């Protein structure tokens, strides 16, 4: 139904896409993967009319097109759902679905008709819990994704581009979206699916195309290839292991942080310890209290009861500055909103919080900054480059560098690899493990169960604001989900976290 021929695009004299050709069939989920900067987003913007190609064209049902505006692509039957959702949060679902093409009656918007059509679209998507009159702000991210799909279907699209649709979703929400994608494909839509999550790619797609450095290097039937082969095509080398070796017996040190009976409006009777040299994972469904735990330890949403001890000294941080001075650092879930000053330089971001720590813990100068950025293996044009122009993986490395500059004892990592490619993930995994080996205590929160289990020396599972249990190294995904859904404890799990 769709053929992309010889698609080429450059910016400011730099060619970022080199003669890419691929095709899409009715009812097919065709995955497009590659490292950050490989050209995936540029290709999708060319297909959807957001960019105009320097060379090449599209053929849709045999008709040649060169789009110069997204409205032209949409009129031809091509829709796109970006990773950053394009919804008006204070408008209703119906108003968003028919934005710009509202049904009219006697020159006025026919709200009853608009809501009727929206209800029919939602029913076809089996979108429980969403009504035409629901305000978008009141929906979860997963349900907002469903509204985006309804919006595309209202425009009668036949080709749907989904760019990192699960980047901000928890594990159980990914399953909901996956079922929706399969239903759309069964209706005959062709879906171009961009994702860093290779497990999703292999579960959903019939074919996978790999981009590297702006070139198409491989297209294969998903059933005829392996994850290792796709990774090798993406990064140009084998990744011997997705996760570095865990701490060996005896490698962990003394207890660095102790939490006993702590709680607030979102957390209840939380008790656990963190040891030097150990990566302790935190799992659970979205809303279980994982991020609330990190924010409470960091003083952003403080504990109102219980005790916290850091390196033998009592501390219940009431604000982040207290936590930072005590040696606690937080890599937040949303790096762009909470972790970085996007329009400031790499240098300014890396040194952003050093004023909050005692002078003896501050890096001494430019040489120390260079060593710090080398330690996180940052790839940038220089320390003066604005961080908004870095890839997601390098932005996350700047966040890590910012906290390493404070020489923390405890590193809280909330979704540290969200929205980064497999090569950057491997680098971040290696860095986190290196920090643990150097004596740091790491608390790692992740919605990706393979990452959670692959990186952690033990896993705390949260449910309803409590720690439902603790799992040892080698636990399974089923063990985690059993505790996360408040089911029976997994074999070998302790009901109370040590």
Q: Which outline best applies?
A: globular
Return the average pLDDT rounded to an integer. Answer: 87
N-C termini distance? 57 Å
In this structure, how is the largest beta sheet organized? Answer: 6 strands, mixed
Beta-strand percentage?
15-25%
Strand order of the largest sheet: 6-9-10-3-11-12
- Helix percentage: 25-40%
Write the layout of secondary structure elements.
Blueprint: E1 2-11, E2 14-24, E3 29-33, H1 40-47, E4 55-60, E5 63-65, H2 70-76, E6 78-81, H3 93-97, E7 104-105, E8 108-109, H4 111-124, H5 141-154, E9 159-163, H6 171-186, E10 190-194, H7 198-204, E11 207-212, E12 215-221, H8 227-235, E13 255-263, E14 270-275, E15 279-283, H9 290-297, E16 305-310, E17 313-314, H10 320-326, E18 328-331, H11 335-339, H12 346-350, H13 366-375, H14 392-404, E19 410-414, H15 422-437, E20 441-445, H16 449-455, E21 458-463, E22 466-472, H17 477-484
Helix pairs in contact: 4-5
Notes on the protein architecture:
The structure is a single chain. With 498 residues, this protein is α/β, with parallel strands linked by helices. The chain is 32% helix and 24% strand. The protein has 17 helices and 22 strands. A six-stranded mixed sheet has the order 6-9-10-3-11-12, sandwiched between helices. Strands 18-19-20-15-21-22 form a six-stranded mixed sheet, with helices on both faces. A four-stranded antiparallel sheet has the order 2-1-4-5, with helices on one face.
Key traits:
498 residues; alpha/beta; 6-stranded mixed β-sheet; 22 strands
């Amino acid at each position: 139904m769709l053929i992309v021929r010889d698609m080429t695009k450059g910016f400011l004299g730099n060619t970022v896409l080199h003669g890419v050709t691929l095709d899409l069939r009715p009812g097919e989920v065709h995955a497009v993967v590659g490292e950050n900067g490989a050209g995936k987003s540029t290709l999708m913007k060319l297909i959807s009319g957001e960019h105009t190609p320097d060379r090449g064209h599209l053929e849709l049902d045999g008709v040649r097109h060169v789009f110069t505006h997204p409205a032209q692509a949409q009129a031809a039957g091509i829709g796109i759902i970006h990773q950053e959702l394009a919804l008006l949060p204070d408008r209703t679902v119906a108003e968003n679905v028919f934005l710009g093409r509202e049904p009219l009656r006697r020159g006025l918007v026919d709200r009853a008709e608009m809501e009727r059509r929206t209800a029919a679209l939602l029913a076809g998507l089996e979108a429980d819990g969403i009504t035409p009159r629901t305000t978008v702000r009141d929906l979860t991210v997963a349900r907002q994704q469903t509204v985006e799909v309804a919006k595309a279907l209202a425009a009668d699209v036949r080709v749907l581009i989904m760019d990192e649709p699960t980047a901000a979703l928890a594990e159980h929400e990914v399953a909901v979206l996956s079922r929706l994608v399969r239903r759309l494909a069964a209706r005959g839509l062709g879906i171009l699916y961009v994702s860093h999550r290779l497990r999703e790619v292999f579960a959903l797609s019939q074919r996978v195309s790999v981009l590297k450095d702006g070139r198409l290097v491989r297209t294969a039937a998903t059933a005829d290839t392996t994850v290792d082969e796709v990774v090798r095509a993406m990064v140009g080398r084998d990744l011997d292991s997705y996760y570095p070796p865990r701490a060996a017996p005896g490698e962990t040190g003394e207890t660095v942080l102790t939490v006993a009976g702590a709680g607030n409006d979102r957390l209840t009777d939380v008790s656990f310890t963190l040891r030097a040299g150990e990566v302790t994972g935190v799992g659970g469904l979205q809303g279980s209290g994982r991020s609330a735990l990190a924010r409470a330890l960091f003083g952003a949403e403080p504990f109102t009861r219980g005790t916290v001890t850091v390196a033998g000294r009592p501390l219940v941080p009431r604000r982040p500055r207290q936590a930072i001075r005590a040696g606690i650092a937080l890599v937040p879930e949303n790096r762009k909103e909470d972790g970085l000053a996007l329009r400031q330089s790499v240098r300014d971001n890396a040194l952003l919080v050093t004023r909050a720590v005692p002078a003896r813990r501050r890096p001494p100068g430019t040489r120390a900054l260079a060593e710090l950025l080398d330690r996180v293996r940052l790839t940038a044009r220089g320390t003066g480059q604005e961080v908004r122009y870095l890839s997601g993986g390098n932005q996350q490395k700047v966040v890590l560098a910012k906290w390493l500059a404070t020489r923390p004892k405890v590193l809280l990592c909330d979704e540290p690899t969200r929205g980064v490619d497999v090569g950057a993930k491997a680098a971040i995994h290696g860095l986190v493990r290196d920090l643990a080996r150097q004596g740091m205590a790491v608390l790692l929160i992740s919605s990706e169960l393979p990452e959670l289990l692959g990186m952690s020396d033990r896993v705390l599972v949260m449910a309803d604001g409590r720690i439902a249990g603790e799992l040892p190294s080698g636990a399974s995904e089923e063990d985690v989900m059993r505790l996360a859904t408040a089911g029976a404890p997994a074999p070998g799990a302790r009901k109370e976290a040590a």
